[in-house]
Amino acid sequence: MTDTHTLTTLIALAVGLLATGAIAGVLAGLLGVGGGIVIVPVLFWLFDLLNVPSTVAMHLAVGTSLCTIIPTSISSARAHHKKGAIDLSLLRSWAPVMFAGALIGGLLSKVLGGAVLTAIFGVVALAVSINMATPKTLVLSDTLPEGPIGRGALPFGIGTFSALMGIGGGTLSVPILNAFSFPVHRAVGTASAFGLVIAVPAVLGFIWSGWNLAERPPFSLGYVSLPAAILIFSVSVLTAPVGSRIAHSMNPARLKLAFAAFLFLTSVRMLWSILN
After folding, report:
1. pLDDT, tens digit, 9 for 90 and up, residues 56-90
2. What phi-psi label fits residue 112: left (phi over 0), alpha (psi between -120 and 50 degrees) or beta?
3. C-alpha distances in Å from residue 179, one per residue of 82, 128, 140, 190
4. Which end of the chain has fewer CB atoms < 10 Å from its terminal CB, N or C?
């Protein structure tokens, strides 16, 4: 490839990452998902285009996505907090256990293969999308459970699987909270804060897991591509408040359908990549 073609390719990739950041920011504010639901598959495709080995590409996509979620979640959570949409009591209750789960998820990336991470992402996202798209969302109870399940298993599981999927927590916490009759707007707002709780320990785990890996692209910190992360969150932090404003002007039913549609399309794309 000539220098001109190489420069053209790099410019195209940079523009693509900026566009991804813009979309991810809107989704973070709109759905409380931290943007990872879009960032992970896009990065996976871009790293493949750059000939990053398949054994590394998914880990790098997940780790980089988690890194971008940190500033995006801060921006999104601030916007939701101004509207009183974050349940601070639930956040204080779930945050410590969710943090521990996310850290373990990040550390597990050292022993899990790329196909396993992709399968986890695809299967969980597909199941959640189907549940959210049904006319009557599954309701398990009128209130959140207490004790080991409500204060332990739920936040720990959300933290662990979100870290392995490279997402901010909204993908799992929003439908789970809704299953226990939690108002959707409040669930989305609180999930935006969960994104920060999950992303920080998970990123540390992914950095450690890929620290001495030779196949990483240049300017990577473990399984985090710094150039890609910077390009994405430089835009996503600006567009997250836009998504928050849209969320609070939408009908809750339409908000759930929008959430389900993005999850379904992404999960099918990721599962298809395993089969081919």
Report:
1. 888 898 999 999 888 878 887 888 888 888 999 99
2. beta
3. 25, 11, 5, 15
4. C
